[in-house]
Amino acid sequence: MTEFLDRLAGRVAVVGSGLAGLMTALALAPRPVVLITRAGLGEETSSAWAQGGLAAAIGADDGVGLHLADTLAAGAGLCDEAAASAILARAPDLVARLEAFGVRFDRDADGAYALGLEAAHSRRRILHAEGDSSGAAIIRPLIAAVKNTPSIAVLSGFEVRRLVMRDGKIAGLLGNHAGGAALLPTAHVVLATGGLGGLYEATTNPSGNWGQGIGLAARAGAVLSDMEFVQFHPTALDGPGRPLGLVSEAVRGEGAILINERGERFMADRPGAELAPRDIVARAISAEIARGGRVFLDARPALGDRFAARFPRIDGLCRQAGIDPARQPIPVRPAVHYHMGGVATGLDGRSSVEGLWVVGEAGATGLHGANRLASNSLLEAAVMGLNAAEDIAGQPVGEVRPFVDSTLPPSADPAAVRAVVSRHLSVLRDGENLRDAVKALLPLVEAEGTAADPAMVALSIAVFALLRAESRGAHARTDYPLTASLPARRRMTFAEVCAHAGAALTHPLARSA
Predict the structure, then answer these.
(1) Catalytic residue among 278, 313, 418, 477, which?
(2) Bridge partners (DSSP) listed for residue 156
């Protein structure tokens, strides 16, 4: 029997309670909103785990133009310059909005913002809150604000499994609630479901985040963009635990260096050294590991006994692993950290499906291009939440019609997908491995079992990666090591992804079954 959530019918449905979802819901007030979360508010979100902070060009020596130039350089020719400029320009307004909700950014002894430096930034422009616990410190007051906003109803324990369509438009949500099927009628849905790191065995993201928003939107016919660009953070704590602990880029920003097991500083002669763009650092570390070596982040000369005070959370992670970062180098390795691609949206957050907005990591605005500039993600998540809310505020409530009982799809399980993705869609790729990934993933999609939805997302990454016959940003192909002279972004529906997947399996170079 299906539960019909008529008491919440017609409200704007915001799915996800990370920074993007919280900002969307708060900015829509006093319009009625239902904020839907699989776990508790702010739980199982990458936002709460963010260490590095929020990038904002608010320093006396900084400006939007400089921030934009750094973003475009990191994006390796694939940023949408107009979108990037517009998002970055909202940073001062955003900071003021966050502070109005109770966020307290770190300040120095003179009361000025304590701005940090991270890789590929030409200025100190990273705002932190409570040191390296920035994400949690930012969303905590937003959660309190949500609880104190009468127009926001929170629906916890609701796992959205399908977007309900009628006449090509959003008509509602179908999911699991209290152990059974539940339908929520609505004409306006905002997906703020986070990234897809949970598709990989080595990730710094919550393992349960495997790209649900992308899968939901793809099944509804939404256009996807830049799916091949998966960013590997160069310095995850190398240990047996999963997800891997993150050793923030800010540690390198404070002077920590990368060394191998022989004590050699292998990044010293590269442009930017340890603060080169993430794709360059991740590839260099991967090369050291591929030859059978190990890599360590050495903060002893730069920080020493000051490490625990500057990075208390990271210090705790290290000590749990039996490492004293003040006196020992930290073992590190690349791990999936962020996805630059996702559901294609405009600056207003609208997808190609009427009634569907996508914000935060699940969406692809063009800000990040082929490689995200450090700490631009929290900025984008919050700004796009504001933008989507402003766009929805001008929309009529829309017609809400009754539903009939619907069959609830099975709960998704990415376990069967992880080994394929981790082996074939990692830091270094090649055509043979990408075709092997397609061969393994397409049957999982077609079987429509518990692995189907995660396999849809993973297949999209594989097909986009196979079609990009070059190395650019976070996408590195050993069989196409050069970067093409003309940068191009790619957009496809999932139906088009499947068509390309079928063609790949008939390619002369495809392995026989």
Answers:
(1) 278
(2) 37
Q: What is the mean pLDDT of the chain?
A: 93
Provide CATH code, domain 3-196+340-393: 3.50.50.60
Domain 237-334 has CATH 3.40.50.300: no
pLDDT greater at residue 231 or residue 241: 231
Tell me the pLDDT tens digit for each residue of 320-336: 999 999 999 999 999 99
CATH node for 410-513: 1.20.58.100
SS3 content of the chain, % helix, strand, coil (to 5): 35, 20, 45
Question: What are 312-321's pLDDT values in tens digits?
Answer: 989 999 999 9
pTM of the model: 0.92
Q: Where are the domains of the chain?
A: 3-196+340-393, 237-334, 410-513
CA-CA distance, 276 to 55, in Å (whole number)? Answer: 17
327 is catalytic: no
Three-state SS letters, 249-260: HHHHHCCCEEEE
Token pair of 394 as six digits: 């001008």
Please name the amino acid found at residue 176: N
Give me the pLDDT at residue 512, please.
37
